Amino acid sequence: MKNSSSSTRQVAIGSWRLLDRVGIEKDLFPVLEQALDFAQNSRPGALALFSHYQVGSAAFLSNGEIARGRNIEYGAGFGQADARALHSEEAVIANAVEYHALGQFLPDGSKIQLEFVALVHECQQDSASCGNCLDIQATYAHADTLLINAHPNGSGTIIRLADAFPTNFQQSGCLTAGQAELLVAARVGMQRSFDFITAPVLGKRGASVRVQSGNIYSGVHIDGADYKPISSVTSAISAAIAAGEPL
Predict the structure, then answer these.
(1) How far is it, in rounded angstroms, from Cα 174 to Cα 131?
(2) If phi over 0 gives left and psi between -120 and 50 gives alpha, with beta otherwise, what is residue 128?
């Protein structure tokens, strides 16, 4: 998928009126409209038990298929028990991986990637997904993957994922030599990780953080029988808080 320019303009795509910050080609309009309509139609089915904020989503893939998603919130009692949420972006990526071959390779050697993700929710202009959802999308994206945030009233914005999330984990690379202490601490966390479920697939992981005091804390990745892992970054931050660091 190629974009014509980076100028900002208003475009009419069916019943949608979008602020295009990328300069998309007109031949993409039909599939953009279809994806936005899918996201719009998915939104009322969102299970937003606690937030009451419904989000519908659709993802167009490089193999020509479209996946759909919606946010889901669950838990026995919000504020009293462990309530959790599956964001709409997470849901559509999961559906795309499971049912539409996202991330798999075609016979010609090319990888099926995200061309764009459309979200429909009661958003403000230029609103964006949370950092976790942006990183999940970046895992399956390429340089020109687009994000469309649209309101049910038909307004919205088109941007590049790379502009919304320029320093994602795939692009940021490894630590530099000047951060050797952080690298050593992260390696310690990796060696101590209890990752019997995910390590065979994703490899062993560790993390480290340096806080304002200058102290460094390592973090381990922990898998559990409930399949709700504790990430190494979360573990490192938790260690800093437990030590009384003023975060």
Answers:
(1) 19
(2) beta
Check pLDDT > 90 for residue 200.
no
- HEC string for 111-147: ECCEEEEEEECCCCCCCCCCHHHHHHHHHCCCCCCEE
Q: What local confidence, expressed as pLDDT, does residue 175 receive?
A: 46
Q: Identify the residue whose tokens are 């984990």.
A: 169
Can you say how many angstroms the Cα of residue 224 is from the centroid of all Cα atoms in its chain? 23
Tens of pLDDT, residue by residue over 93-145, are 999 999 999 989 888 888 999 999 999 999 876 677 888 888 889 888 988 99
CA angle 26, 28, 31 (to 5 degrees): 135
CA dihedral 86, 74, 150, 170 (to 10 degrees): -10
Strands 114-120 and 84-86, sheet pairing: unpaired
**Interval 4-33: pLDDT, tens:** 555 789 999 999 999 999 999 999 999 999
Q: Which CATH number fits domain 174-242: 3.30.70.640, 1.20.1300.10, 3.40.50.300, 3.40.140.10?
A: 3.40.140.10
Q: Per the structure block, which two tokens stand in for 21?
A: 């910050």
End-to-end CA distance of the chain: 43
CATH of 9-170, one of 3.20.20.80, 3.40.140.10, 3.40.309.10, 3.50.30.20: 3.40.140.10
User: Rounded to 5 degrees, what are φ and ψ at 114?
Assistant: -80, 130
For residues 90 and 135, is the Cβ–Cβ distance under 8 A? no
